[in-house]
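Put briefly, the fold is written as integer tokens. The lines below illustrate.
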Amino acid sequence: MHFVGDSFVRWGLGHLTMLAVTVVGSVLLIVVGRRIRGSRSETVLSQVFAATLFAVAAVHVVHGLLPGNFRLQGSIPLQLSDVLRFLSAYALLTRRFWATSVVYYWGLTFNPQALITPNLHYTDSPVYDFSMYWSLHIFVLWAAIYLTWGLGHSPNWRSYRIAIGATLAWAVVAFTFNVLAGTNYGFLNARPASASLLDLMGDWPVYLLTAFVAMFVVWALITLPWMVRRRPVTRDRSEAPASPG
């Protein structure tokens, strides 16, 4: 790992180590979650997980709000990833249907990119930057995996609609704040200054519509397998036993 004013090295030892931790932890949470599902241990583990994630997310927000660290564009917890961290903690604590639904879609589509192609730049506290970046992103992914494959909170088309509604609600709030404060959270008001996939989607607001439609299509695709799995198996008439007489 390269510290001291350097950027994190993608696909270096540190990156590969964190990816290995992510995979191993995911598998363990699935196995443990299935074994303790419905027991007192499920409640305890979920509460401990929720408290840990909430604490780390809160420290991150407070650190960004401190004098010397505060930036109007960046320190306000309005990024979708910021909301997702607290929502994941809430979903772990309460296991409410609407919360686990949103965590499934947001956690499994927005979060993995930060793990595969990390955009981590070190400041004067590289150890803090490293540990905070990876703990936040890994914990959120673990929460989505644990809730879905460990505890069995699988999505359906109602989940899909809830996630779309939550995303649009977040977009309205963030967009409004951007207009009032002159910020650009979520790149809702302008494309990023650096090159990105949004450059291929046209100018504002066309790229927003394109991005949202593409996102909702992907979400439909990751919902469909669960619905096929739930579909009742019907016997072919030729296989039915003949009636007596």
